[in-house]
Design goal:
The protein has one helix at 115-119, and strands at 34-35, 39-48, 56-62, 76-81, 85-94, 105-112, 129-135, 137-141, 164-166. It is mainly β and 167 residues long. Strands 4-3-6-7 form a four-stranded antiparallel sheet. The chain has a three-stranded mixed sheet with strand order 1-8-9, with no helix packed on it. The longest helix has 5 residues, at 115-119. The radius of gyration is 19 Å and the shape is elongated.
Length: 167
């Protein structure tokens, strides 16, 4: 399961805030900041006590381009959750440089002993849990002046501390 409670339902309950089945999405207690072109780590509270040596598959699907699906390259990351796990599983999430910024993006977490079901953003799974969230991506504007690392150049990248956050 994801988080301390399980919220099973026969079919999805879509809503504008991704909470149509109630506000019981509790597998992620603190969503990280997602920055275009950087990697963020998502900590998911997971319990896997299925007794199977193969473990379970934890998959996170993110609609980085906001096109309403999780079908594009880079929109799923996953890891194996070994039997006996009861606590935080940290999953690094690389955010594409061209991710849509300033908009709510679909973010789905799936856990199942059926790896194919977990890796598919839609459809049933024989066990486990699914939770939906919205996330936003921010980007930095570093400017466009020449940067040749000599006296009088204009720093335009993260390594030399230039830039400001934008939504």
């Amino acid at each position: 399961k994801l988080g301390p409670s399980v919220d099973a339902e026969a079919g999805g309950q879509p809503s504008a805030n991704a909470d149509g089945d109630g506000a019981d999405e509790d597998g992620i207690s603190l969503m990280p900041v997602f920055v275009a072109g950087q990697t963020s780590t998502v900590s998911v509270n997971v319990m896997n006590i299925n007794g199977q040596a193969i473990g379970a598959r934890l998959a996170i699907h993110i609609d980085w381009n906001g096109d309403g699906d999780f079908d594009d390259a880079g929109e799923v990351v996953s890891t194996t959750v070994t039997d006996g796990t009861n606590g935080a599983v940290n999953l690094p999430i690389p955010v594409p440089q061209n991710a849509l910024t300033g908009s709510n993006l679909g973010f789905r977490v799936r856990l199942s002993t059926d790896a194919n079901a977990a890796l598919s953003a839609t459809g049933p799974a024989p066990n486990g849990e699914v939770e939906d969230y919205h996330v936003q991506v921010i980007a930095y504007d570093y400017g466009d002046l020449a940067d040749n690392n000599t006296t009088g150049s204009y720093p335009t990248n993260l390594t030399n501390g230039s830039g400001e956050g934008v939504g």
